[in-house]
Automatic annotation (TrEMBL), chains A, B:
Residues 38-57 bind DNA. Residues 84-224 form the Ras-GAP domain. Keywords: DNA-binding, Repressor, Transcription, Transcription regulation. Residues 15-75 form the HTH tetR-type domain. InterPro entries: Homeodomain-like_sf, HTH-type_TetR-like_transc_reg, HTH_TetR, RasGAP_dom, Repressor_TetR_C, Tet_transcr_reg_TetR, Tet_transcr_reg_TetR-rel_C_sf. It comes from Cryptosporangium japonicum. The keyword Methyltransferase does not apply. This is TetR/AcrR family transcriptional regulator C-terminal domain-containing protein. The lineage of its organism: Bacteria, Bacillati, Actinomycetota, Actinomycetes, Cryptosporangiales. It holds the Pfam family TetR_C_1.
Length: 224, 224
DNA sequence: GCTAGGCGACGTACGGTGTACGTAAGACGT
DNA sequence: ACGTCTTACGTACACCGTACGTCGCCTAGC
């Protein structure tokens, strides 16, 4: 009471933790983009002096790594219960896309800054477990994990530059932005590009990969 | 001659062009990393005042976009002449990897900053042409391009965080860095992870995709 | 040959950034 | 009661991107 009237400052000892800092950073990133994130902004968001952050986070890079870890840790990697590794693998790759949908800006940090954390290990563990469930071991398992993750990660980036191409194409059908003489196929595919559904594109590639892996476990010999 | 003795300063009129600036930026990025790139550093590299750069590059962001475009424009997308779309598609995806090998740091800029340039259109054109050659049109062609590009781009990023996992595993077999109780498959795959060959991993996934697409064009009906 | 005009290189300056360092105020074992 | 340790904090500095004004050279028209 008397403490409360002593001033507008928070009287309760405000506990500053790495978690609170990371969380604030994630919120700011989603609100104003990655580039707008500064230590000062994070401090302001928490109502704290800038240098106080450095008692819990050694670096801005470390903070960003924390952000990446936060997002990855939020990936839904729990087995859905069905024993079907195909469905599980699909779910795992989709988890990436879901996270990208929830944290569109922070996902960029994940993709850029390679993380080294328990969260990443969890992801790898889950992937390898699924590979093992499908009957793959050793190098093959690692390669399958690599391929799936590459697709999961890459398809997030595609939204960026494929979107740019679409903008280009849509900038008027007859415009000189895309020279029909030099880029005939692009122009020919204009309608398909404009109508494209990112979700369907993603599922298409995922299907392609899963069935390809599926055929790998039980190779069907078939000539011509 | 007399001009030469007038001073150590370059007497020939130093022509500053956007190309020279971008090129210097690429070199600096490869030398000291992306984060170390500053306008001042670029200017120093060219023996020029900082603000002179802004006569040719409106922005630092624009400069980075130029860097990305430079790398993408350097991708070897010329048809190899063989009429085999499979080989051509492989070559196209590999071109990404080759560029990542040549410009490891600058490639990060490419992946991060979505580019809007003629170079990107060239890439899309080539991809769509290959898809058409394989017999795909419209939405399917776009989706195949999406999938291939996602893999091409994503496998570059994999090197980053998969490498981190390996570091973690290799940090002593019995160390507590990777808890065998929580991550049994990771530990079990330790040897495979340590021995893994990024190039082979890449080719594995590429093969998987190409053959999957191949089967798509001539679907073999086969039940059970 | 001379001059008007414009373009491009440059210097200065400002607001903002990450963070090294020193300080001080509370928590706590003795 | 008193050291000690943790931790929030303020100051200061080097560096960043870039807006703006200046000024010298290069060229066009006579």
């Amino acid at each position: 009471m008397n403490a409360a009237r002593r001033g507008p400052e928070p009287v309760v000892r405000l506990v500053l933790t790495r978690e609170r800092i990371v969380h604030a950073a994630v919120e700011l990133i989603e609100r104003h983009g990655v580039d707008a994130l500064s230590m000062r902004a994070v401090a302001a968001e928490l109502g704290v002096a800038v240098m106080s952050l450095y008692n819990h986070v050694s670096n801005k890079a470390a903070l960003l790594e924390g952000v990446a870890e936060y997002v990855v840790a939020g990936l839904d990697t729990v087995p859905s219960g069905t024993g079907d590794w195909r469905a599980e693998a699909r779910a795992l790759v989709r988890a990436f896309r879901t996270a990208a949908h929830e944290y569109p800006h922070a996902m960029r940090v994940v993709l850029t800054h390679s993380i080294d954390s328990t969260a990443a290990s969890r992801l790898a563990e889950r992937s390898l477990a699924l590979a093992a469930e499908a009957g793959f071991r050793g190098a093959t398992a690692v390669r399958i994990v690599h391929t799936l993750m590459a697709y999961a990660v890459g398809s997030q980036l595609q939204a960026l530059w494929l979107g740019q191409l679409i903008d280009r194409v849509s900038e008027g059908p007859g415009m000189a932005r895309v020279d029909p003489a030099r880029f005939p196929h692009v122009v020919a595919s204009a309608s398909a590009l404009l109508a494209h559904d990112p979700e369907a594109d993603f599922e298409f590639g995922l299907d392609l990969l899963i069935t390809a892996i599926e055929r790998l476990v039980e190779p069907v010999d078939q000539s011509t």
